Amino acid sequence: MSQIVLELKGISKTFPGVKALNEMQLQVYAGEVHALMGENGAGKSTLMNIINGSYQKDSGEIYMDGRLVEIRSINDAAALGISMIHQELNYVPALTVADNIFLGRELVSGKWLQKQKMLEQAQKLLDEMEIHLDPASKMCDLSVSQQQMVEIIRAVSNNARVLIMDEPTSAITSEEVEVLFRIIDKLKKKDVAIIYITHKMDEVFRIADRVTVMRDGCYISSFPREQLEETSLISMMVGREIKNMFPKSNTPTTEEFFRVEHLTGGRFTDISFSLNRGEILGVAGLMGAGRTEIMRAIFGLDPLTAGTITMNGKVLRIRSSRDALDQGIGYVSEDRRSVGLVLGMTVRDNITMSNLSQYCRHSWIRHKEEKRVADEQIREFSIKTPSAEQIAANLSGGNQQKIVLSKTLLCQPEVIILDEPTRGIDVGAKSEIYKLMTQLAEEGKAIIMISSDMPELLRLSDRVIVMCEGHVTGELDISEATQESIMTYATKREEG
Fold first, then answer.
1. What b/e readout covers 259-271, taking b as 16+ CB neighbours within 10 angstroms?
2. What average pLDDT does the segment 13-41 reach?
3. Helix (H, G, I), strand (E, B), or coil: what is residue 299?
């Protein structure tokens, strides 16, 4: 067996009102992919931020190559060969690929920046990893996956011995995932130890060598991947058995409730589809197909140049998100941190902000009533927070998503648009959101769900429309929808 590169013993960390880590332990070997699993709020990110030097532990010990070390800053971690690629990518959009690779450690001669040498070395690094990018390209012109590849190159070019990847596939296509996995394989052969955080079970069983499970800030167990089964792994993560991950059982009505006809906007053309009461309509397509852009336009966030939106036989005039909410359309963005939430405000503020007029009298907010409603929503949605006054930024991704859902549903929409509703959240939170979606459909709500998760699409949808390059290229009843048929339509225009 390879040597232990990184070892953590008895790591504890407390934030105001929250015990984030309690005597956590971890062993990571050279040349392995070590999957770190747990629900949102289990403490994974806190632990990784301690390893990365972003946070300081309250107690415990960290060892590199058997030697006790202190990591008080990101620079300390970098000096030890520890790099982290965050879920929220960290780069300078206006600078080139080469500039970002060498950011903070630029090549200089005297007072002069060696731009050409940086371009040449960046090209060499890209070639080694078989990443086909021009080092002179600006980061803002790249896709999310390409930006992520640059982040990886930056990390390994700094002689990383331990590379932390936090949800690296959350925003990339299946083809791009394959590229990432090939890079991971190359890094393993260079004896780089990779700590891999993900909520996607198929990835764990495909690339992980070992798995460590956390729950509620505590170490649960570590296993070689081949000793694990998916059901037992899920049970260890959530502390309970999840028997029915996809609970959908209702049959939607045949009553058409919502229709869009010939919608045209910035990145889509001539989009038409209908939606019945009690129906979950899945929207599939590769990244850049125009799925999100259509839903933003329907919700009044982006302008339409043509087309009509009809609800219950009435043509809607939507010029803003307020218009959409007032006319019974709710929208949960894929980008909960930038669009769905105001991270610096409290849980209470975020839950009630879309419906604040309901708690006002003569221009004064009735704070007791507002707090009562917020507390009810926290209980109903099982939002894990010390109180309604906790800052939203301090909560896990799954709990942040529950806040966004709560805020939207408080407005009592009849049509609910969910854009990647379970992206970046754990299996337990996914199960809860799936149950909520099923419940809403049974109540007669009409749901549009954009998802890049095939099992999610195929198990929850009643119908699936597929998009490619701004056009609807196919519509499938769920009885005839398969991963293969969806992908055929998702690439139809590219091929033809």
1. bbeebebeebbeb
2. 89
3. coil
Spell out the alpha helix ranges (H) of 270-318: 291-298
- What's the pTM value of the predicted model, to 2 decimals? 0.67
How far are the Cα atoms of 195, 227, 369, 382, 492 from residue 386, in angstroms, in the given order? Answer: 29, 36, 19, 12, 49
What are the tokens at 91? 């780069």
Domains of the chain: 4-81+159-238 (3.40.50.300), 242-328+413-496 (3.40.50.300), 342-411 (no CATH)
Q: Where are the alpha helices (DSSP H) in 36-103?
A: 44-51, 74-79, 97-101
CB atoms within 10 A of CB 22: 15
Q: What is the pLDDT of residues 226-267, one digit of tens each?
A: 998 888 888 888 776 666 667 766 677 788 999 999 999 988
Task: For residue range 135-185, list pLDDT tens digits in order.
Answer: 999 998 887 778 878 888 888 787 789 999 988 887 666 777 888 888 899
Nearest Cα neighbor of 451 from 199, 302, 298, 280 is: 280
Give the Cα separation of 392 and 383 in Å (integer). 11
Sequence letter at residue 213: V
